[in-house]
Amino acid sequence: MNFLKWIQNNIFTALLVVSFLLFILSQLIINSILAPLGTELQSLSSEKKYLQGENRGMEEEIAKSKSIIIIQELASSSLKLSSTNTKTVIYLEDDNLVASK
After folding, report:
1. In the predicted model, is pLDDT for residue 64 greater than 70?
2. What is the torsional sign of CA 87, 92, 95, 97?
3. For the whole prediction, is pTM greater than 0.70?
4. If you average pLDDT over residues 49-75, what whole number do you get?
């Protein structure tokens, strides 16, 4: 009974204490929800960085394997192909030149 009288006399203080307790409770609940999500986000971020590194390595390997020099070396070494007649292609950038027949 004395507690109820105290609350009636100090309603502002009682509301302040209750709102403070509710605030603390809500922060604890939110923290308990977000903590595992933050850990999962960190692990996914590190996995993403690792996969990006792997992707860069594969792109470099593809670029090297598509190089004309590599293809010519593979053709001559493993397939025993060679060009007996080497051709040279020259590109001219001149609008005034016309090919003759």
Report:
1. yes
2. negative
3. no
4. 83
65 CB-near residues (< 8 Å, 6+ apart) = none
Tell me the CA distances in angstroms from 47 to 18, 42, 50, 58, 62, one per residue in order.
44, 9, 5, 17, 22
Tens-place pLDDT, residues 48-60: 999 999 999 898 8
CA angle 46, 50, 56 (to 5 degrees): 145
| Cα distance between residue 73 and residue 55, in whole Å | 26
Per the document, the length of the chain is: 101
Q: Which distant-in-sequence residues (6+ apart) come within 8 Å of 82 by Cβ?
A: 75, 76
Q: Is the dihedral of CA 41, 42, 45, 51 positive or negative?
A: negative
Structure tokens at 12: 């502002």
- Domain ranges in the chain are 2-77
